[in-house]
Fold:
Amino acid sequence: MDQADESLVPVSPVQTVKNLAENFEVHTMPQKFLNMRPNFKIGKTGKASKPFGLRKNLIIGIIVIVVLGALMVLAAWLFLKTVSPKKPVSPASALPAVVPQPTAESVSEPIQPEKNLAGDQLLDFNSWLTYGAPDFNFTLKYPAEWPSAQLANHDNIIYALAFKDNDLEQFKITVFNNEQNQDLLTWVESLSILPESLESYTLSNQPSYIYRGDFEKVFNIYAAYGRNLYSLEFKASQDKALSHAYDQILATFQFTGQPAPFNPEENQPQFTPATDSDLDGLTDREEEMYGSDKLRPDSDGDSHTDGDEVANLYHPTVPGSARLYESSLAATYVNAQYNYNIIYPVAWQVKGAGDSVLFQDQQGEFVQTLIQSNDGYSDIKDWYRANLGNNIDGLSDLKVADQPAVRSPDGLRVYFLFGDNIYSLIYNIGLRTDANFITTFNMMIKSFKLMSS
Ligand SMILES: [Ca+2]
Ligand SMILES: [Ca+2]
Structure:
């Protein structure tokens, strides 16, 4: 048993496994481990020769592709040039030869003749059709491939029309009933568009606005004519033929017929003057703004009422000849483009620039200076009759900056002619029913000065 026991010990399975394990550890593991590890490490830091070779090949590959791409573009360009020599080479097809990335795009461009053909068709203005909507006072020309479809009316929309290319709306015209005789800017603002994001535009000789949407998916043109307000919405596009077609549509758009005049009765004041507790010509809101006493008609006791003082540019709370515009209550706005300056309450915000500037109270009322081109009129009343269609009997005469001017029957709008332009000063009470700033408006009219250019 002892011998058997002794002889059994070395051949026990545990021992065998242990020996095998020892053998493996000694002869293979460290060697492999030591050989593998340094290579792996060098490779990972990117200094080893093999990956570098790969990068080099890749770079050479890219260069070859770029050069080949450029050559293909050049070849395509030369081919197109010989095939259609009358056609100007668009910078789009010439550019990618220098730009390494979009080779695939630039090569595929000349292979798409359908698009160019459609563009040619689109821009064949002789084939364009005329659309007239005499009841809604407009006419325009449009590509024959774009059938028109009338859209449903709702709210104060009285007419809506879309022009479609393959069932997709390219542009649409919406006509709104201007029941409240809103001015254009007030209406556009009511569409939640900030005046700062508008640019002036002229549509069929009417002062209009263009608004380019936040994401440039559409752009809109807003205009007013007679009793209607118009929105023209175009699907924005980088396609040159398409934008050229849009330009042509806008160039052919005409307002037609005499704009329906507003009934003079409707033009009467639709607001009530705001409270003027001491009846001195300044409303309580104005007294608050100028710091005068709303219960004392002559706050500074110089025998001139507060209202008279402000209307004539004097300081209501400093006796004597202290000027309003030399005080901290008012500021001067200078418009170098149209050469004028005007005094406004310093508490108001100035918005806009150029031909349309708003001076706005915190509660929404504002005075606007609006300048539009004068199409050859020499008498402001002739312009008023032709453009606003109102009965001129209700107009009152006044002078603004020494120019003969007219004031609308409601007293909120003043117009005069200067140089090649019509200048308008408009007091807009916004959505309010009471007017708080009539005297301030009069003060601004009186302060208006034209500067020699
Ligand atoms: Ca008062
Ligand atoms: Ca006074």
Q: What stands out?
A: Residues 73 and 107 are 6 Å apart (CA to CA). DSSP finds 13 helices and 22 strands in the chain.
